[in-house]
Structure formats: C-alpha cells, structure tokens
Specification:
Layout lengths: L5 E3 H4 L41 H13 L7 H8 L6 H8 L5 E3 H8 L2 H13 L1 H11 L3 H12 L8 E2 H11 L3 H17 L8 E2 L12 H7 L17 H13 L9 E3 L9 E3 L8 E3 L1 H9 L3 H14 L18 H13 L13 H13 L10 H7 L1
Antiparallel strand pairs: 1-2, 3-4, 5-7, 6-7
Helix pairs in contact: 2-9, 4-9, 5-14, 6-8, 6-14, 7-8, 7-12, 8-14, 9-10, 10-11, 11-12, 13-14, 15-17
Length: 390
C-alpha cells in the first residue's frame, strides 16, 4: 500500500493538458463528428513562438545531415522544418515540471469536476455508437476511453496549439532528455512522410503530445488506428473517431482484460483481495485490477489511473467518492477551502471558482483581501483567515 500523498507534474504527464495546468492552448468550438478540417488554434503564447538561436540552428543542420539514416527524405525535412524554430517556452516548461505538486484530493477535484463529468456524459452520448463499436472490437470499456479523452484534452477542446516539429526539435537540442525527444522528432517526421498529416496541422502540447488523446509521436507509430478508413490515422481531426480508436488499441495492447473493471473504492475498514492502494495517507483506499495497470501504461501515475477510473464511473452515472480526505497542511478540509473561496468571492475577491483547490487565482484573491485588511499579504489559506471572513 502506497502512502505517498503528493504527486509531481512529471507524474501527471500528459493529463495536465486537460486539467488546465499545461501550456496547451484552449481551442474552443463545437465538436462535429465527420468534420475533416481542424479548428483554427488559439494564438500561441509569446514564449512559444520561434526565436533566433544559433545553437539550435547548428543542431538542426547536424540532425538534417543524419536524418537520412532514420529514413527521412529531404522533402520531408524541408516540409517539416519550414517555419520551425527554437521555442524558449518549451524549455522553460520542461525544466519547471518538478516544481508543481498536488494532492490526490486536489487532482480528483479537477479531474472529476462537475463540469468534466457533465461534458463527459454529453460526449459519451454524442459518440455512443462509435464508442460501443470500439468496446466490441477492442474489449476496452467505452467509458474509460471517454474518460481518457476528457483528461487528455477536455473532450477535444484543448488539443494543443504548439507545432510539434518545433517543440520536439527544441527539446532534442536542449539536451536534458535529448535522446528521447530526438526519437519523438524522428517519429513526427515519419508521420508527416507517411501522409497522415501535414506539418502545418501537426499541433500538440509543448512536449509534443498530439490530438484528442495526446499521443506522443512514438506511441502514435505503435498504436494509432485509421478507424474511419480514409487512409490516414488522423487523431487531430474534428471527428475524434481515429483518436478514440487509437486509445482503445493502446489499452488493448497494454494488457486490458475485456469485461473487467479498473478497480473500486473500498469502504472504511473493508478488506479486499488483490491489490489495495491508498495514494494519499488518510484518504480513500482502492482495490485495483490489471486494467488499472493497463491505464498506467498510458500514464505511469496512480493519481492519473484513479482519475481515469473515477471519471469513467462518474460518466457512467456513479456518484462522488464516499471516503473523506484528511485536512490539508493548513488544517483545512475541502469543505473549508470551498467556504473560503465562496466567502472571498462574495466579498469581491474573485477566486475564479469554488472547487476547494487552492491555486494561483485563490492565492491572488487571498493576498488582495489581506491587503485590504492591512494584514500581511501571504496569499496562504488558514483557519484564521477563514474565521476572519465569517
């Protein structure tokens, strides 16, 4: 049984895109099954636009000289690198990953928020025929496929707006994980060379994860599926069918057992056979199956896999977790934190939501309130602060 109570951004991995915590742009607009053209992506942040970098240029020249050994043609290289460049914001985000932590309670508050559950139920209903067919073909629970879609890109609304060739080449040049990202760059160029998508439409997260369910290029090569039969494995399309099928194929090949659940929450004091985990000390316990481990092949984090499983259950009509989480380090429960946010907002210090998760907006509201009361502007929640708001 694990008692780790905090998870790093690295552990959350690609699921951060959908949780609104990554650099992915919010590309809004209706999902239209059958549409073939991608929506116009949101404008890039300034630090995600190419800037001059002589070292990067030299690295690209070196890479181009050896790309033939990877089977990449000159025409593909020219198409792929046309307009590409060094993105300083990609390096910044990569190096800052480990600084971010959240408890499992906070993670689930975001991953299975009321909005995400409601949108998930609507998306499941809208694409039920495709999802049911995928469940029949691959044996993977259709609600789990939907939940991964919800965590990875908020059901297609946040697929990322960063050019993948620029992102992967920048990270390959940077060198911290150079070999890994050079493999991603090569795979991305092969996807272009294969005709699945052109370089201009190959957009994704700052780390090169792509499409509705945020495949990295090497995973795309292994698992992507042309479900629509148009000759392209188009996980970027407005029609999410190829992306959802690719996710089902990924899980099926990762050991998913047809007909088995991912796991379940245990009642307090309940004993269970098999594997029991408690990712946050004092919080709910879960009995998990081999399918939980299959989800972790998609993203190797207990928090992520529980988030997928719990969101899938909620999409299917289940209620919230029954167990309680302990107070946080400040002594506040989730109920207390929601009250804090509600009272701050009512007094004119908008926290931009009342989900019980203390993020930058809540901290800014706390600081503004403290300044208004001539209190030290710490931006930190506390029981004393809550009492002052009552």
């Amino acid at each position: 049984m694990s008692s780790n109570s905090r998870f790093t951004r690295r552990h959350f991995g690609l699921g951060l895109a959908a949780l609104g915590l990554s650099a992915c742009g919010d590309m809004r607009g209706p999902l239209m099954a059958g549409a073939s053209e991608a929506r116009t992506p949101a404008p890039l942040a300034d630090d995600l636009r190419p800037v001059a970098n002589s070292g990067y240029d030299a690295w690209v020249s070196s890479f181009r000289a050896r790309a033939g050994g990877y089977g990449i043609s000159n025409s593909t290289l020219n198409a792929g690198f046309r307009g590409a460049g060094y993105l300083p914001g990609v390096v910044k985000r990569d190096r800052n990953q480990t600084e971010f932590t959240r408890t499992l309670e906070d993670y689930l508050s975001i991953a299975a928020s009321d909005e995400r559950v409601a949108k998930g139920r609507a998306a499941y209903a809208r694409h039920r025929s495709t999802l049911s067919a995928l469940e029949t073909r691959y044996g993977v629970d259709a609600q789990v496929i939907t939940a991964i879609w919800g965590l990875e890109s908020f059901y297609g609304e946040r697929r990322g707006n960063v050019p993948v060739i620029s992102a992967t080449s920048t990270l390959a040049f940077d060198g911290r994980r150079g070999a890994f990202f050079e493999k991603q760059l090569v795979a991305a160029l092969k996807i272009i060379q294969n005709g699945d998508i052109d370089a201009a439409r190959m957009l994704g997260s700052w780390a090169g994860a792509m499409g509705h369910t945020q495949f990295i290029p090497t995973s795309y090569e292994l698992f992507a599926v042309d479900y629509t039969g148009d000759g392209r494995r188009d996980i970027w399309s407005e029609d999410p069918s190829d992306a959802l099928a690719s996710t089902a194929a990924y899980l099926a090949k990762s050991g998913w057992t047809r007909g088995a659940k991912w796991g379940r929450e245990l009642a307090p004091g309940e004993a269970a056979g098999g594997t029991v985990i408690q990712p946050q000390a004092g919080g709910p316990r879960f009995a998990v199956t081999g399918n939980f481990r299959a989800i972790k092949r998609y993203n190797n984090s207990d928090a992520y896999a529980i988030g997928v499983g719990h969101l899938a259950d909620r999409i299917g009509g289940a209620g919230p977790l029954r167990g309680d989480f302990p107070p946080d380090a400040t002594g506040l429960t989730k109920k207390d934190r929601i009250e804090l946010q509600t009272r701050l907002t009512a007094k004119g210090f908008d926290t931009d939501g009342t989900d019980g998760v203390i993020g930058p907006n809540t901290r800014a509201a706390i600081s503004a309130y403290q300044n208004s009361r001539s209190m030290p502007a710490t931006g930190e929640p506390s029981a004393e602060l809550l009492r002052s708001l009552r």
